[in-house]
Amino acid sequence: GVGFVSSGTVTLEQAYIIYSSIFHATFIKYLYDLLETGFSLPGEREVFYNFRESRPTAPDVNSLRFRQGPLMERSEILDEIAVVGRYTVETGLVDSFFGNISYFSDGIVYISQTGASLDGLDGFIDPVPMDNSSTYGITASSELPVHRRIYETTDCRTVLHGHPKFSIIISMLCDKRAVCEIVDCGKNCPETRMFGDIPIVAGEIGVGGIAKNVPPVVREFGRALVFGHGAFCVGRNDFKEAFTELARMEEACSTGYFRLLRQRLDAV
């Protein structure tokens, strides 16, 4: 019970990504299981309540500076992507390696590279033509097919994708699980479930998964939460709308989680 150790085959950054991923998954797993099992260790309840009271508050979006769109200059677009990427990490919405971001202008999707840290995107943003006339897509985020399809089917210019912890926990809660015959819910569930006004869909990363399921929901609601994965939020002209929606979604899911936990603990 002393923690965990990670390593990288080439760089220290690889070790950090693995470390962050384990911490991220463990955090989500613990809070998810807590809804099912409740507290089981001496002093656990007190430690948990201290965590709840000390966790960061929701970001004050109005205190952040966003460029008003539409953005036309390449340098302006690249700079704004880097700035907003930092915002997502600095405000505690996501951890560095858990998300991607893009801006669409003049037939080009400017998108963060695969494995790039959201709070260090300078020099790690790829300009990918919608007509595939260049090879920039090779190093682009693996979520490029989702971003591309959203731009093809909506009039939005920005997509912000993050893995906020409480949103992910809420995405995996389903009242039908006990009677549902689907084994792999995150891959095969055909329904669009709702948590308040937040739509939740299933799907794997790739062209046939979330790239198929997310865009229609985003077109209707302006946002989508993917089972066990994360959130996609969009903006019509600039990033303020997308960032605001991501922050609002995580706050709603955080509030909802603690409400559900209180109800289930009271029922024991």
Automatic annotation (TrEMBL):
In its UniProt entry, the species of origin is given as Candidatus Aquicultor secundus
Q: Which domain of life is it from?
A: Bacteria
Q: Establish whether keyword Lyase is in the entry.
A: yes
The protein, known as: Aldolase
* Gene Ontology cellular component annotations, sorted alphabetically: cytosol
Q: Which keywords fit this entry according to its UniProt record?
A: Lyase, Metal-binding
**Phylogenetic classification of the source organism:** Bacteria, Bacillati, Actinomycetota, Candidatus Aquicultoria, Candidatus Aquicultorales
Q: Name the Pfam families on file.
A: Aldolase_II
Q: Which InterPro entries does this one have?
A: Aldolase_class_II_sugar_metab (IPR050197), Aldolase_II/adducin_N (IPR001303), Aldolase_II/adducin_N_sf (IPR036409)
Residue intervals passing through the bilayer = none
Q: Which GO terms describe its biological process?
A: pentose catabolic process
Ranges for domain Class II aldolase/adducin N-terminal come to 79-257
Q: Which GO terms describe its molecular function?
A: aldehyde-lyase activity; metal ion binding
